[in-house]
Amino acid sequence: MASGVKPRVKVPKKAAAGETITIKTLISHKMESGQRKNDDGSIIPRSIINRFTADFNGQNIIDITLEPAISTNPYFQFDSLVPEAGEFTFKWYDDDGSVYEESKSITVG
Amino acid sequence: MNTTKKLTSALAIVAAAGLTTAAWADPDDDNLVINEEIEIVTETAAPAHMENVDTIYSGWRFRSDETQAVQMDDFDNPAMIFVEAAAEAWNAADGSEGKSCSSCHNDVESLKGVRAVYPKWNEAAGEVRTLEAQINDCRETRMGAEKWKYTGGSMAAMVGLISSVSRGMPVNVAIDGPAQSTWEKGKEIYYTRFGQLELSCANCHEDSYGMMIRADHLSQGQINGFPTYRLKNTKLNTVHARFKGCVRDTRAETFKPGSPEFVALELYVASRGNGLSVEGPSVRN
Amino acid sequence: MELTRRNMLVISSGTALTAALGALPAFASMTDDEIAKITGGADTAEGAITLTAPEIAENGNTVPIEVAAPGATMVALFADGNPTPKVATIKFGPLNPTNAASTRIRLAGTQNVVAIAQMEDGTFQKASANVKVTIGGCGG
């Protein structure tokens, strides 16, 4: 696991059934592009988050393939329907094989 | 050729649009409220000691709408990643005394207001201390821990954490009494031309704020928003690291971060922002 | 035909796109190659999706962009002046009500950001935005 990686998610705690809510996600990650060079001229190897997914109760909301052109500390904002109470699960896939997960529950009423 | 003509006029339109947008002059009129809660004073009457400026503006007012927006919500503000890390460091014991920051100061909220009055005269030490110097004094004297690098990541993050609880409070550094001679020394540095380019702080940040220096929109060089997350290096930057960058850009040998010269300059520059809100950790380009 | 800024404008105008690709495939840019991989050379229409990006970015390291693609199943984002043009591919799931997303991207210089969307009916939509990336006077 790359060091200092920490996912953060902002989801409302409560919504009306069928409501559209906005979700924000941010994960601390260098997103080393593979384009930069060390002082000695050698290429710093690519090390990025290459995929991000968000699901709710097993149904997909968004599935993003990231390239090195995504900025340091990848940030995404998107909307989701909330058909019922349940749990959001978020996953970030690192080039090094690590998968970082975060989940948030939401109530309806 | 017809296509060529069309393209040329299209290019002219693009160029004209670019010029209109690039013709920034004064700070914009935007209003800064963080988290829809913390109201930030980004414009106010200059403190009495400033002879050549009537109104002072936060650097936030000189940035583009996109950059401004990043600071308006703590979730969007990447500086908060570092602040969160500092909150963990706050509670982590370090050094021979087995103490953490919280051992003496409890919650970081207990330091609310501290950022607003630093740099500040320290009677026991007989000198003006920056927040960074005070943190290192705590680490060495009370915790028995190693000093942090003055402009390093741990230091910038801790100053960011301590600043964050004072956001919205007016900067109010004391410039009289025992601090006066340091303040005067800082003022002298501010107006002294340095480097091969023979530029003083005042040449850019007092005489020319609002103008473009190449593609940069010059601000007043206020430091009420420090530490600041810069888009260019995607990390928190300390005041002295920024001073160093500025002086280097005049093609001068710079003073060292933490040096008496930069401490004096920080006190003086901070005093030019007396009345603006503490804004750190801010977001700049 | 060299790949000049002027020609890039030709290529990026919707009607000229297929003409340029059809006539001179050997000179197509890397971005056009990537787009062709998605569309299989099919026409791209404009107007159904929107791409929002700043006219001028204060720093190319962190440029906020937003794509809104109602009726799309997938949007691919490209930056035609980057060393590698691919930026991200966004697939919208069944729970996504707006098919919109915001993120922050890196741009190596002034260039076009291009969004290609695959719509539910299999057709393709395109939107692009020119972003000027400034090079600051003060390295600090």
Automatic annotation (TrEMBL), chain A:
Signal peptide: none annotated. Residues 10-103 form the Sulphur oxidation protein SoxZ domain. It holds the Pfam family SoxZ. This is Thiosulfate oxidation carrier complex protein SoxZ. The gene is soxZ.
From TrEMBL, chain B:
The active site is at 246 (cysteine persulfide intermediate). Binds 2 heme groups per subunit. It catalyses: L-cysteinyl-[SoxY protein] + thiosulfate + 2 Fe(III)-[cytochrome c] = S-sulfosulfanyl-L-cysteinyl-[SoxY protein] + 2 Fe(II)-[cytochrome c] + 2 H(+); S-sulfanyl-L-cysteinyl-[SoxY protein] + thiosulfate + 2 Fe(III)-[cytochrome c] = S-(2-sulfodisulfanyl)-L-cysteinyl-[SoxY protein] + 2 Fe(II)-[cytochrome c] + 2 H(+). Residues 86-171, 185-278 form the Cytochrome c domain. Substrate binds at residue 242. Its cofactor is heme c; heme. InterPro entries: Cyt_c-like_dom, Cyt_c-like_dom_sf, SoxA. It comes from the Bacteria. Keywords: Electron transport, Heme, Iron, Metal-binding, Periplasm, Signal, Transferase, Transport. Its EC number is 2.8.5.2. Heme c 1 binds at residues 101, 104-105, 138. It is found in: Periplasm. This is SoxAX cytochrome complex subunit A.
UniProtKB/TrEMBL annotation, chain C:
InterPro entries: SoxY, SoxY_sf, Sulphur_oxidation_SoxY, TAT_signal. This is Thiosulfate oxidation carrier protein SoxY. The keyword Zinc-finger does not apply. Residues 37-138 form the Ig-like SoxY domain. It comes from Sulfitobacter sediminilitoris. Residues 1-28 form the signal peptide. NCBIfam families: SoxY_true_GGCGG. It comes from the Bacteria. The gene is soxY. Pfam families: SoxY. Keywords: Signal.
